[in-house]
Design goal:
By secondary structure, the chain is of the alpha/beta class. It has helices at about 95-100, 105-110, 115-125, 125-145, 160-175, 200-215, 230-245, 260-265, 280-290, 295-305, 310-315, 335-345, 350-365, 395, and strands at about 10-20, 35-45, 45-50, 60-70, 75, 80, 145-150, 180-185, 220-225, 245-250, 270-275, 290-295, 320-325, 385, 405-410, 410-415. Residues about 1-5 have low confidence and may be disordered. Bound molecules: zinc ion.
Length: about 425
């Protein structure tokens, strides 16, 4: 008997999920769509069934189908990391140590350190060095359960070096199981050599960098904040990007109430990221524009100012929340979305349910993949994790260890138990 609405032949079948987190409230209990004793079936990399194992339709697994027995453990959608700066050379461990001694982030930036240091290191690296460094981070992200990852350029800040960063991402996308979402961030900073000619840099960005980089990117982003770009400079960059077909994202209101959140809403950006400063009118504007708030709790935690994004304001306004690692050499060097879920709860004020939703369905929306990734529902990508634990609560509760026991991307085991030797980027 074939079940109406389901493909009769599947090439992926997971059974034995003690707790299945679908992130689709229509498929189960509560906002996470929880199902007890769950199963997932997929064909061609897409979910065809997610629900109670007892309700599994009569599907015929194809010869050679992937079978996963979750053994009573929890199963969640693969993480979507909505914000990373994956492509960079060198590190800033000493600057991190200085910050622990009390030197401020903006102080380091003003002294020629900070992003400027990484720009110098990135420009000096060979293509192979840059790609190897980024590939290593991508492999770490996958091993920790990230199956879709947004990644920005932004440490090149010349036509050649910005394009080179996006080319690295394109090559990684071709060889890694992780879906890489490329963002052009030539407006990360006005580089040192243009300090006296800010408009000259923006002219270069608009007339030379964007034409060279836009074909390799999906989104355009700008760092709109104190010490970086002003609101009007950021507007110019996002509007120029839009003319090249790139949707907008914005680093907004991280270091101060600088007006970035309002700009992101006014321009209909897909996301506004950081938002450590965000008042009620700004939150309402983001909600009305459908702009997702990407919270980066690793960064706010490590900046050690005691400030986190005002979750109660965002929640009250009905803003969709997402999480990202902000993986970067300066303010948060981590590829682990598991850590971000934990920090979002213990530092950021989210409930575990909000944090898991933000790391999956919310983050998918923040990278233009709402409904297609970040949930286990018919039609979505079959990206999932078998956790080394009985509940999604372990992600907030069981700290500092890798809970991604099995990582499945597109219906194939990509990392963890049962993955082929040498799998990964
Ligand atoms: Zn960032």
């Amino acid at each position: 008997m074939s079940h109406p609405g389901y493909s009769a032949t599947v090439d992926f079948l997971l059974t034995g999920a003690g707790q299945l987190v679908t992130c689709d409230p229509e498929l189960g209990e509560g906002p996470l769509g929880l199902v007890e004793h769950g199963a997932v079936a997929a064909a061609g990399g897409r979910v065809v069934y997610a629900g109670p194992q007892a309700g599994l339709p009569d599907l015929e697994p194809a010869a050679g189908a992937v079978r996963v027995d979750a053994g009573g453990r929890a199963v969640v959608p693969g993480f979507v990391d909505a914000h990373t700066h994956l492509v960079f050379a060198g590190d800033r461990a000493e600057e991190f140590a200085a910050r622990l001694r009390g030197v401020g982030y903006e102080e380091a930036l003003a002294a020629g350190g900070g992003i400027n240091r990484t720009v110098r290191d990135t420009r000096a690296a060979t293509d192979a060095e840059l790609e190897a460094a980024a590939a290593g981070r991508l492999a770490t992200a996958l091993a920790h359960g990230t199956t879709t990852l947004e990644a920005k350029s932004g440490y090149g800040l010349t036509v050649t070096d910005e394009r080179r960063s996006l080319e690295v991402l394109a090559r990684l996308a071709g060889r890694s199981p992780v879906e890489v979402v490329p963002t052009f961030l030539g407006a990360h900073l006005i580089p040192e050599e243009f300090a006296a000619d800010r408009d000259g840099y923006l002219d270069l960005l608009e007339h030379e960098m964007l034409p060279a980089c836009a074909p390799l990117a999906e989104f355009v982003d700008a760092f709109c904040d104190r010490g970086a770009l002003t609101v009007s400079e950021s507007r110019r960059v996002l509007e120029a990007g839009a003319r090249h077909g790139l949707r907008g994202k914005l680093h907004a209101n991280e270091l101060g109430a600088t007006g970035g959140a309002s700009l992101a809403a006014a321009l209909g950006c897909v996301s506004a990221d950081h938002l450590l400063f965000c008042d009620e009118p700004e939150a309402r504007a983001l909600a009305a524009a459908g702009t997702v708030a990407v919270l980066l709790p690793g960064t706010s935690f490590l900046l050690r100012t005691g400030r986190a994004a005002p979750v109660q304001v965002l929640r009250a306004a009905g803003v969709t929340m997402a999480l990202g690692t902000d993986c970067n050499p300066g303010t948060c060097y981590s590829e682990s979305m598991q850590l971000m879920v934990a920090l979002a709860c213990v530092h950021g004020g989210l409930t575990p349910e909000e944090a898991v939703l933000a790391a999956t369905d919310g983050a998918a929306r923040a990278v233009g993949r709402g409904g297609r990734a970040g949930r286990l529902a018919p039609g979505a990508a079959c990206d999932l994790l078998v956790l080394a634990g009985r509940s999604y609560l372990d992600l907030a509760y069981h700290l500092g260890v890798n809970l991604a026991a099995v990582v499945v991307k597109g219906g194939t085991v990509a990392a963890g138990e049962g993955s082929p030797p040498g799998a990964g980027p």
